[in-house]
Amino acid sequence: MYAYGPVPSRRLGRSVGVSPIPEKTCSYSCVYCQLGRTKTLTTKRHSFFPKEAVFADIEKVVRANEGKIDYITFVGDGEPTLSLDLGALIHECKQNFPYKVAVITNGSLLWMEDVRQDLREADVVNITMATSDPDTFKGMHRPHGSLRFEQVWQGIQQFAAEFKGQIWAEIMLVDMVNTDTEAMKSLKTLIDSVHPERTYVMAPTRPPAEPWVHMPRPETILEALALFGGENVTQLEEGSFGLDEFHSAVEAISEICRRHPLRIAQARTIEAYFAQRTLDRLIASGKFKIISYQNRKYVLPSEFVFGKQEQS
Ligand code: SF4
Fold first, then answer.
1. Where does 3-168+234-245 sit in CATH, by number?
2. What is the CA(276)–ligand 1 centre distance, in A?
3. Where are the domains of the chain?
4. How far is CA 29 from CA 114, 144, 170, 267, in A?
5. Tens of pLDDT along 214-238?
6. From ligand 1's centre to the CA of 26, what distance in Å?
7. Which residue has the least CA distance to atom 7 on ligand 1?
8. Which residues lie with the beta carbon below 6 Å from any ligand 1 atom?
9. How sure is the predictor about 262, in pLDDT bands with cuts at 50, 70 and 90?
């Protein structure tokens, strides 16, 4: 399944997610990643799946949810610009549907001409901009060995100069990593150079890849909001998941929690929708685990859980 949802998104409303890449394939392995540690760390672009099959899946989900969609969002179970089919898929979506298309990218490959070309028909490109410091960049994103901080930022700036749609800056704040006042001021200067239409201040509200990653303190978030002038996306999203394309609670819970951290309460709502009790069996099978983060319980695939605190 390449397309899913609509899922409630804090920035994009009801968003049909599209993942044109294999699970956890990324050019970064961010310490805060909600998908766990990256399995395939790469900067090599591939046509991972037949693009006709990916588009057929998008079409199926979109047609089943006409009128209930705000965005079709290429987000990937990793970095979507690694897909060589991204440009063709965005083009097909723009030709066939009336919905806006967004791409959520870490921005690491924008120095590549073909990546910039692939994104040109998107309405929105949301780019990670978390630090202006090369060492913090390395420690926070753990990029592929071939990527250099300066190269990544030059790529972002070049894309910003060429792109006709909206650029949104995503600032992920990790406590004690990039939350120093001077570091945030310096990042602000860098972000200003690409003139984003919107700036989102984010925090690891969902279980991160590494257990030492924490939300910044509320006063730090307020300081960041005042400095960046951005919107606060440090709260949990509300709303329900589109479940029409799933046939059972087990299928829905398994698919959704691979792409979108699922709170236990949300999993119970899915069980109620299908009138099936399945979560306890999934946990007992060992394929899924419950972990606690920020005083909430989440269900995650076992392979996403590394050093995270596991609950029985
Ligand atoms: S947060 Fe995004 S860029 Fe970072 S490792 Fe996860 S998928 Fe890749």
1. 3.20.20.70
2. 33
3. 3-168+234-245
4. 23, 8, 17, 27
5. 888 878 888 888 899 877 766 555 5
6. 6
7. 78
8. 26, 28-30, 33, 35, 38, 78-79, 106
9. confident
